Each structure stands twice: as C-alpha cells, then as structure tokens.
Amino acid sequence: GVRRMRSFGTTIFAEMSALAVRHGAVNLGQGFPDTDGPPEMLEAAAEALRTGHNQYPPGPGVPVLRAAVAEHQRRFWGLAYDPDGEVLITAGATEAIAAAILGLCEPGDEVVCFEPYYDSYAASIALAGAVRRPVTLRPGAGGRYAFDPAELRAAFGPRTRLVLLNSPHNPTGKVFTRDELGQIAELCQEYGAYAVTDEVYEHLVFSDAGDAHVPLATLPGMRERTVRISSAGKTFSCTGWKIGWASGPAGLVTAVTRVKQFLTYVNGAPFQPAVAVALGLPDSYYEAFRAGLEARRDQLVAGLTDAGFGVLPSEGTYFVTTDITPLGGTDGMDFCRTLPEARGVAAVPTEVFYDDPEAGKRLVRFAFCKRPDVIDEAVRRLRA
Ligand code: PMP
Ligand code: GLN
C-alpha cells in the first residue's frame, strides 16, 4: 500500500473486539451500546424500508433529515443553518471528518488536534497529505485533562489550515470549557484557520461537568469558519446505521460535499427519515438518555475503583480512563491484550491515541454504554 498509510494497521477497536469474541469476554472496549435506540425511530426505519425508500437519496441527504438536523441545532444550541446548502448528510461522522479534511487541506497544510485523538483523525489527515500538530491533553488538578495554553499557541503557524476539535472528548471523557474553547477560537481567528468540530457526544455531558456542552461554532466569529459534525450513532444508539452530518457556512459545506460525493456518493436511504423522527423527539428523550449514561458511568467508576484501578474523571461521552499503575501495570497495550483471556473483559489501551505512545502508556479506556447487568458482570470479573 501507499507510504502515507503504512503506519496504520488494524484499528484498535477491531483488534480488541475480535479478542473479546474469541475469549467470550465482556466487551467494554469498542464503544457501542448493547440496547437499541428509540422505538419511534426503529419503527420509522422499518416503515421506510417497506414504503420504497430504498434507492439513492438526494446528494446532500433527504430534505426531511436536513430540516431536522437544522432544527435540532437551533433548538439545542441556538445555531441557525439553512437546510438547503448548509447541511450535508454523510456516512457517519467518520466520513464527514474525512471529507472535511480532504476538502479543506492542501498537501503539507497543518492540522492542529488534541491528543489523545480518535483514531480516524490521524488517518484522514494522512490521506489528505496534511500534517498533524498534536497538542497533548494531560491530567491536571483532580485528574481533569487540560492542555497547556503555550503549547496550543506553539502548535499554530503559517501553515495551519484547521483545528480538529472533539468535545466531549473520546477517549478522555473531557468536556472542553467555554474558557478553553475561547482560547482555541482566538487562535483560529488570529491565524485564519478553519475549525472542524466532532461533536458526536453532544448530548452526553454529565451533571458534574460544570458547563454544559458548548459548540465552538457558538463563540463569536466562529460560525463562519467552522464545520460542525455530529451523527445519530451515539445519541440514538444506532452506531451501525452510519448516519452523520456536517453543518457550516455554504462555502465550507460545498467543499465537504465535493469530496463526499466521490467517497460514497450517498448513504443510508431508509435510515435518513428515521433519524429525522429521532431528532424531533421531546427533551425528555435526551434527558433520559443522558441520565441513563451518567448512572452507568457512576456504576462502572465505582466498580473499577473497587477493583483497584486509578480512575480519572469522566465528564462526558461513553468512556472512562483508568491508570493501571496501582494494579502493577506498566503497559496498557500488554494489559489489554491479555485482559480478555485472563479476566474475561475487553478494554482499549489509550496509548494508541497518542503520537507519543509513552504519554498514554499506563492508561486504559473502558466503555460504559452497556446494560447495568453487563457492567456488573464485568466488574465482578475484574475484582475476582
Ligand atoms: N468521532 C468520535 C470522537 C467517535 O468516538 C466516533 C465513534 N463512534 C466517531 C467520530 C465516529 O462516528 P460515526 O460512527 O458516526 O462515524
Ligand atoms: N467510536 C467508538 C470507540 O471509540 C468505536 C468506533 C469504531 O469502532 N471505529 O470505541
């Protein structure tokens, strides 16, 4: 294969899920829920399948979904996007991220991102021939992850094309504060950089996080330079449907569309109207979803603490990071490769999300988007 992709092996999610299957382990590695999403949405998809929504949908996505995506952003974040021209439906957030980077970066352009970062980021940046400039998030006061403002500033330069920001953040569970976002926004404007924001966990900010989720695009001067990305997978527990979207000013969305049309052209015809139904669910759905995940976070955090892990705070997402040092662990990759067979549980080593694996060497990520009985069983096995 090509040189620029040679450093990318099998994704860690596939590797650890395969180990979980082989050893019959409880899979707290790859982040996917073990219950289905809202029945109204499932019924709408079945209805769409039965009523002829099975051919290519329109290029930008079906109108009813684009309208629902725009309305959702107005309702929750006060952001106004025109469903015709400022919203693009994609094959999950993953395709939106790839298409945004490919559509906005020339070879050699620099992309500022925060490490640890979601694994598709480095691959998408490499596909574009761009260069990543990671800023390392490190546990600070109370274990809360933070960046060094001087390091962030130093990552910007004349070749900076865009900042790729994920908040709430996978794998750390960090929710960027308004103040942190303000620093990023200021640098984007100073250097004339775009922002691409991955907000797939926008509805999973827990009650102790202080600030609720703040989209970067809501900060002064940012809407006009931001491609805002989310997807249905997390919010509606349908990760296999791969319905995502990108929103932003028409010029930026056009650049993303130009690439998307040649990656997949279109995707998910019968699922698109179903996601439109889900986006329109009342606030009570979103509140119950968030509260349910928060309860399961608390359950897993208590269990992991009991089992002897050093548990770092998780303010949002599906994930909690642990330090294996108190258990005598020194290498998260080794730990995760043996855990499924040794203890019947699968997790993910955080080091794969860093440019410098040393930075995450002793850290292991667990997912809590599982039924309470499944989390109990995992904890029982880890404590045994
Ligand atoms: N970004 C982050 C931070 C994620 O955790 C994930 C994993 N689901 C994705 C993007 C991919 O989202 P999708 O499944 O919609 O492509
Ligand atoms: N986003 C999920 C995670 O971080 C899984 C995505 C994937 O398997 N590519 O676990």
TrEMBL record:
CDD domains documented for this protein: AAT_like
Alphabetized Pfam families for the sequence: Aminotran_1_2
Record keywords: Aminotransferase, Pyridoxal phosphate, Transferase
Superkingdom field: Bacteria
CC annotations in GO: cytoplasm
Cofactors that this protein relies on: pyridoxal 5'-phosphate
Aminotransferase class I/classII large domain sequence ranges: 26-382
InterPro entries from the UniProt entry: Aminotransferase_I/II_large, Kynurenine-oxoglutarate_AT, PyrdxlP-dep_Trfase, PyrdxlP-dep_Trfase_major, PyrdxlP-dep_Trfase_small
Key word Transferase present: yes
GO molecular function, one term: kynurenine-oxoglutarate transaminase activity
Record-stated family: Belongs to the class-I pyridoxal-phosphate-dependent aminotransferase family.
UniProt-recorded name of the protein: Aminotransferase
Species, as recorded: Phytohabitans suffuscus
